From TrEMBL:
Function: Catalyzes the reversible hydration of carbon dioxide to form bicarbonate.
Pfam families: Pro_CA
Protein name: carbonic anhydrase
Organism, as annotated: Streptomyces spirodelae
Keywords: Lyase, Zinc
Cited InterPro entries: Carbonic_anhydrase (IPR001765), Carbonic_anhydrase_CS (IPR015892), Carbonic_anhydrase_sf (IPR036874)
Length: 213
């Protein structure tokens, strides 16, 4: 098992990116996916990262980051919108399971962001609880428009940044862990066409942001 007592946020992020690079290159190793690993995990889990991402079916976390059982503590919602259940799940992964890394994963062609843009720009309505998703994405869309941006990638990046900021603002446990250097937070934007994950923003990690993503 991964030693959560010694793994740093930076090392955890390196592991995550290495897996994505294998996936992009078409050379996945499929680690920790056998019967031995399954047996090892029966007593306890020690994920090295909490991954909070969009529910889009094209973003299967263990596949695009080439990981296996017990590696990632995954939380997913449409448009990676966060309510109390999400915040509690992220805090559980950090405070109870000891994961040193929290990842927010957005992606291009996000349906939740597109629906929100349509609602803001054209007044296109949404029914049921989809409207709740749109309302939670709206601040990101409004901020992007206020900054004068019009490209789809700009809206995705802003929503990722907004989600990272919201997690740290609303979760004292996460913010304190970042301030103490125990946990790093990174926002990534995933490109559907080539499978690459690009850094949008970081907290508690010295990683250059790829703002073009």
């Amino acid at each position: 098992m991964i030693d959560r007592e010694t793994l740093t946020p930076a090392e955890a992020f390196e592991m995550l990116l290495a897996g994505n690079q294998r996936f992009v290159a078409g050379a996945p190793e499929h680690p920790n996916q056998d019967a031995t690993r399954r047996t090892e995990l029966v007593p306890a889990q020690n994920p090295f990262a909490v991954l909070f991402g969009c529910s889009d079916s094209r973003l299967a976390a263990e596949i695009i980051f080439d990981r296996g059982l017990g590696d990632l503590f995954v939380v997913r919602t449409a448009g990676h919108v966060a309510g109390p259940e999400v915040l509690g799940s992220v805090e559980y992964g950090v405070s109870v399971l000891g994961a040193p890394l929290v990842v927010v994963l957005g992606h291009d062609a996000c349906g939740a962001v597109a629906a929100t843009r349509a609602a803001v720009e054209d007044g296109t309505p949404a029914g049921g609880y989809v409207q709740d998703v749109i309302e939670r994405v709206t601040p990101s869309v409004l901020a992007t428009r206020a900054a004068g941006h019009t490209e789809g990638a700009d809206f995705i990046a802003e929503h990722v940044r907004h989600t990272v900021g919201m997690l740290l603002e609303r979760s004292r446990a996460l913010a304190e862990a970042v301030d103490a250097g125990r946990v790093g937070v990174v926002g990534l934007s995933y490109r559907l066409a080539d499978g690459t994950a690009h850094v949008v923003t970081t907290r508690g990690l010295e990683v250059p942001a790829d703002t073009a993503s």
